[in-house]
Amino acid sequence: MVGIAFVVAAKELRQRLRDRSAFIVGFGAPLLLAAIISLAIGSSFTRFHATFAVADEDHGPLAAAFVGALHAPQLAQIADFRTAANDADARRLARKDVDAAFVIPPGFSDAVTSGQAATIDVIRNRASLLGGQVGESLAQAFAARVSAAQLAVRTALASGAAADPASLGQQAGSLPPAVPITDASTGAHTLKPAAYFGPAMALFFVFFTVGLGARSLLAVRASGTLARLRAAPISGSAVLIGKAMATFAMGLASMLTLLVATAFVLGAHWSHPAAVLALAIAAVLAAMGIVTLLMSLARTEEQAGAYTSAAAIVLALLGGSFVPISFAPAVLRKLALITPNGWALHAFTDLATGTRTLSTVVTAVVVCLVFAGVTGGLGIYRSAAVMAE
Questions:
Q1: Residue 276: which of 295, 257, 291 has the closest Cα?
Q2: What is the pLDDT of residues 49-77, one digit of tens each?
Q3: Which of 21, 153, 271, 309 has its CA 20 to 30 A from that of 360?
């Protein structure tokens, strides 16, 4: 039976390689989409940049300290700042030109140094959700420093220190943060768009590549070829195994080709080649299992194609193939964990950033193999029953 299975697999591969659609679906389309999305997103995928406006209507020392903090070298890497003439000008800019605007009202510095309530208005652009949140966080961070300065002044005065409260407030507000923050990454490399969307498109299109092979079984059955094969000394199991071998070879070749292309053409970096290979194999097997189950539910090639397309799109959406799952709400990030796409893409991200620990990759491989075993087992059982009819 093994020899017959290899013969069936070789014949299937020859037929697939003659079919141009197999090259388009398995290699051309995913690489083209990965390149387009990566180039379109560019550096904005990993580097956030915003524009803010500042209207200083106070012109006091603490207002100057806030404006100076906004122009710190660390913030210059992620934001540009524009000067607004007044409150109305800041609000006008926030409506269309900047992500958020800060308005420091008159008397702000005097209110802070005298221990009174003081506010900084943050006007967020309704079209820039992330930029507005960053702007609000910057204002809150400065407000926390102001509160700490006020506490320091009250403590000094309560201890009997002979000093002017306004002078103490200015000194406390001008001190650097007591606990400086350093920026570090969990990986050795920055995640490039191609290193994310390359595997994402490969995981999406592998369902169509696998589906082309699985649908050929329905075509053989519909044309009567399967009945003629069974009349010969060829078992149905040998046909199933042979077609599965050919489908696996095409799916794995598609994924590995795209991963290699993203490295040499689009500049992605892949660490731990053995882990990349194991993850690709597990992902292809998971897709084969899911598609096998879907094929067992279909009676025609048209139904099989519709089922495969629907499953591929839903799993890609939930797994983060089109939009990075880290940008999604918490509920969608949890739903990604019920898909092999989500697990595999998370693991590919770790491999692309050079993460030292491979625990995520091992978990993803196990999850994909469980998907393959459960769905594939059910699909093979149902397919064997259909072939026996």
A1: 257
A2: 788 889 999 988 878 888 887 877 777 77
A3: 309
Backbone angles phi, psi at 53, to 5 degrees: -115, 145
Contact 124, 136 (CB under 8 A): yes
Residue 136: the pLDDT is 85
d(CA 376, CA 226): 21
Q: Residue 309's pLDDT is what?
A: 87
Collect the ranges in the chain with pLDDT lower than 50: 162, 177-185
Question: pLDDT value at position 282?
Answer: 95
pLDDT of residue 304: 80
In the chain, the amino acid numbered 294 is L
Length of the chain measured in residues: 389
pLDDT at 157: 56
| Nearest alpha-carbon partner for 234 in 3, 64, 4, 2 | 4
Show the 3-state SS of the chain.
CHHHHHHHHHHHHHHHHHCHHHHHHHHHHHHHHHHHHHHHHHHHHCCCCEEEEEEECCCCHHHHHHHHHHCCHHHHCCEEEEECCCHHHHHHHHHHCCCEEEEECCCHHHHHHCCCCCCCEEEECCCCHHHHHHHHHHHHHHHHHHHHHHHHHHHHHHCCCCCCHHHHHHHHHHCCCCCCCCCCCCCCCCCCHHHHHHHHHHHHHHHHHHHHHHHHHHHHHHHCHHHHHHHCCCCHHHHHHHHHHHHHHHHHHHHHHHHHHHHHCCCCCCCCHHHHHHHHHHHHHHHHHHHHHHHHHCCCHHHHHHHHHHHHHHHHHHHCCCCCHHHCCHHHHHHHHHCHHHHHHHHHHHHHCCCCCCHHHHHHHHHHHHHHHHHHHHHHHHHHHHHCC
Specify the pLDDT at position 38: 67
pLDDT tens profile 145-172: 777 666 665 665 566 554 555 555 555 5
